[in-house]
Amino acid sequence: MCVSICVSERKSTYIFLQPNSVRPLPSLGRTPVRYMTHTMLIAGSRVTIPGTDFRQQSGYQVLRLATELVPSTLALLGADAVSPFWAILFYFVLILFGIAQQVCSAVTCTSCIGK
C-alpha cells in the first residue's frame, strides 16, 4: 500500500535505462564511491549518493545476504550446529528463484511477440 508521500520509481532515476546519447546527471556520474554513504542493514546494504531522494532511489544492495551473511553465519555456527544440507538448500532456492525470474521474462517476451 502506497502512502501519499510515496513517489513511484521512474525511468529517469535509473542510469542504466537511459540511452547512451543522454548524459547522466552530474551528481550521479561524478561522485566517487568513497564519498557515498554506506549503511549496513540486516539482509543487505544501502549505498547512496549525498542529496539523493530516498523515495525515488533506495540504493539497496541485496547481494550481501548471499555473499556475506549466510556464509559467515554458517561458518560461525559450524557443521555441528547447522547441517550442511541447509546451506545447500538455501543456495538451491536462490537458483530456483533466478530460474523463475528468467521463465517469467521469457513468457512475457514470447507472449508479446506471439500476439
Radius of gyration: 19 Å
Strand content: 5-15%
Assembly state: single chain
Q: Kindly state the mean pLDDT as a whole number?
A: 75
Number of strands: 3
Describe this structure in words.
The chain contains 3 helices and 3 strands. With 115 residues, it is mainly alpha-helical. A hairpin with a 2-residue loop joins β1 (37-41) and β2. The longest helix is centred in the last third of the chain and has 31 residues, at 84-114. It is flat, with a radius of gyration of 19 Å. The chain starts with 25 loop residues before the first helix and ends with a helix. Mean pLDDT is 75; it is low at 1-7.
Give a topology summary.
Layout: H1 26-29, E1 37-41, E2 44-48, E3 60-61, H2 63-81, H3 84-114
Antiparallel strand pairs: 1-2, 2-3
Provide a short characterization of the protein structure.
By secondary structure, the chain is mainly alpha-helical. The chain has three helices and three strands, in the order H-E-E-E-H-H.
Task: Give structural attributes.
three-stranded antiparallel beta sheet; 3 helices; disordered N terminus
